[in-house]
Amino acid sequence: MKNDFERIRIWTQQRNITVPNLFFRHYKELNIQDDEALIVMHLVSFEQEGIDFPTPNDLMMRTHFQQAKISQILQRLMQKGMLEISQSTDDLGKIAEKYSLYPLWVRLLENLEAQQQQVVETANKVDEATIFTLFEQEFGRLLSPIELETIGMWIDIDKHSPEIIKAALKEAVLASKVNLRYIDRILMEWKKKKITTLQQVEKHSEQYRKHTTTTNTYQPPEQQQPTKKVSFYNWLEERE
User: Fold this and answer.
1) Taking Cα atoms as reference points, which of 25, 60, 27 lies closest to residue 42?
2) pLDDT digits (tens, 9 = 90+) for 37-82
3) Which residues, at least 6 apart from 139, have a Cβ–Cβ distance to it below 8 Å?
4) Torsion over CA: 64, 66, 72, 74 (sign)
5) Are the beta carbons of 60 and 15 closer than 8 angstroms?
């Protein structure tokens, strides 16, 4: 996120940001009024023309607002933390002031990130609700209070994602060891090895099975087409 903010600052300094469509879609969520949004548009337009510090009179020439109204709008934008006045010094030591909309772009980015996080959290809550049903289906019975508490601790305390818990359950089913102790061992080992995504789970399992198939597969004599034995990770027997 910090890198994103720095990228925005560089873009604004290099005049590579135009009024984005995202601004028009979300400025209401930032508590920006319509007249304030219009002034933002004009500030960006002036900036693209190389005018970094337009006066209220400059803005008045392009709107139907009076200078006093424009000054009020600019003041509101600064009070809301959407606009700032920065200073720079040229090679001759001359100080120049300019308007910067960098705070606005940061607030917009933060708003979008918060919305995305909310979508993820909502999806996780839905997944969490289905986990208990999935375990009951695989166990063929209702879960006991202790089992419900254990699964809840995986989510709330150990911070395992729903998809990782489902993957551990799948490993247990494939190994015909469908019990919470075995699944808990899987989750512990994955956490120790920093396995947090389905891609990492698949890669880890594939590497293990390739290794065991290569080193441990028994070839019975006088049998032309032996049945290939698929090895599963016995998480309970792994040694530190």
Assistant:
1) 60
2) 999 999 999 988 999 999 999 999 999 999 999 999 999 999 999 9
3) 178
4) positive
5) no
